Amino acid sequence: MARLKENKKVYVVILNYNCWKDTIECLESVLKSDYDNYQIIVVDNNSTDNSLSHIINWAEGKQGIKYTENLSLESLIKPPTMKPSKYLFYTKEKEVDVVNPLVFIQSGENRGFAAGNNIALKYILANNNDGYIWFLNPDTVIETHCIRGFVNKINNHNKVILGSVIKYYKDPRRVLFYGGLRVHKLFHGIERVVDRHNIDKIDAISGASLFISVASVRQLGLLPEEYFMYWEEVHYCTQAKKMGYKFDIVEQESCYVYDKTGTNANSMYLKQYLYILNGLKYYRFFFSKRFSLIYFSCILKYILAFVRSDANTRKAIGNALRDYALGGK
Question: Do strands 102-106 and 87-89 pair parallel, antiparallel, or not at all (unpaired)?
């Protein structure tokens, strides 16, 4: 398909933390997009592995890596794009008018997923009143038609947030997300939607691939920073739903996203701890009348972990319940 210049700009927001190799692979796939009017904003969330220097060296043609662990996806990232690539290291200056620029931003501190992405949102809102924003996980690769598919699907519709069919990177036959998540209403927890028959049950679009208009972000505001990690997109989408927003999925095979599902994940303890703690914050905010029931369900999870002799899970849940009671509200 010919690469055509489109009217509305799409900002692709990628948050990097200690995963520069994955981010570079993701960038190579995005740079092969058949939609030309886009800008990629990489925010480095104060990585400890010198990530941003590696990524800048890649853009300048000084950094080579082994790009893919999955030969079936090799065509999405190879051959590598010509280097050097134009980029802007953003501080306070205005947006530079270059073709498909890469924008690199150093956060200076790691205040979590939402705060890191909000740095990019503030940059976008300061530079543009129109167009679209695509939040994309750094450990993904994409089909070349993704951006065009999103733009064609949203088609100037108001109050809609789009998601993707996200496949497992290591096993592309399997679906990781069919767009988003369901929130349990009577007990603590969320579950992935994995087939098209349950699209109408989606309560939140997965933050691994979430597409929204700039105008909608101006209406909804920035991502909630009280969640360091996990539940941010659920909170954001629940608030949007209350304001009349709908969710939809770009389903074409030519628009699939492939996710490595946490190859840069923190320890299992931290994941479980934040999942329970931030979920309690979410339920208190949106389901306060049922909160006692939700809290009790977490106690049952703790008891179940004890019965199963799962010390790590028991510790994570116990500490989350304690910290919430001590002021995590």
Answer: parallel
- Domain 10-259 sits in CATH at 3.90.550.10
For 131-156, how does the pLDDT look when each residue is reduced to its tens digit (9 = 90+)? 999 999 999 999 999 999 999 999 87
Render pLDDT for 181-227 as a digit per residue (tens, 0 to 9).
999 999 999 999 999 999 999 999 999 999 999 999 999 999 999 99
Q: What is the pLDDT of residue 91?
A: 76
Give the whole-angstrom CA distance, residue 280 versus residue 290.
11
Q: Kindly report the pTM of this predicted structure.
A: 0.92
pLDDT tens digits along 81-90: 999 999 989 8
Domain ranges (residues) in the chain = 10-259, 268-328
Residue 226: name the closest of 110, 113, 109, 105 by CA. 113
